[in-house]
Amino acid sequence: MTLRSKLIHAALLAATAAVPAAWAQVQEPAPPAQEYPSPATESQMPPGSEMDRATPAPGSDSAAAANITDEKIEKFADAYVAVQTIQEKAATDLQTAEDPAQADQVKANAESDMIAAVEKSGLNVDEFNQIVETMTANADVRERVAAKLQERQGGG
């Protein structure tokens, strides 16, 4: 699995954890972590790595939040819903994989599908991940994203 897809997985997990409880109640529970490959942690990444650079500096969350337009929030919500669907399907497919080669193929397909879904939304993977990171540090952005996700879940 590539660093980009690990960041998508980490971003998706962080986004799920970051949205308010009201929205989380609408969601089905995420598959247990052991069913899907775990994302890389900062301690596993070499210093100066992409994950290291993507971590916002203290005090920069308000500046980053100011750069997240409503249009980007819309695109992020579209990408998030698509990535979540792909991840859930992959987790189910991994449960039924008959051998390691088949499991690797499921993971590879999910990885490319998630990257494609993010890019189809109009964001690149780095933008997607940056929004997630900003959400974890900025309640305003978290609330804006949660509102868009609720619209998509509730149809309104």
Q: Look at the helices and sheets and give the structural class.
A: mainly alpha
Most strands sheet:
none
Low-pLDDT sequence parts: 18-59
Tell me, briefly, the overall form: elongated
The portion of residues forming beta strands comes to under 5%
Radius of gyration: 15 Å
The H-and-E topology, N to C, reads as: HHHHHHHH
Helix-residue proportion: 55-70%
Terminal CA distance: 36 Å
Instruction: Please report the total strand number as a whole number.
Output: 0
Report mean pLDDT, rounded to a whole number. 74
Helix tally equals: 8
Your description of this structure?
With 156 residues, the protein is mostly helical. It has a domain at 1-18 and 69-156. It has helices at 3-18, 21-24, 50-54, 61-66, 70-96, 100-120, 125-137, 139-154. α1 crosses α5, α1 (3-18) runs parallel beside α7 and α7 crosses α8 (139-154). The termini are far apart. Mean pLDDT is 74; it is low at 18-59.
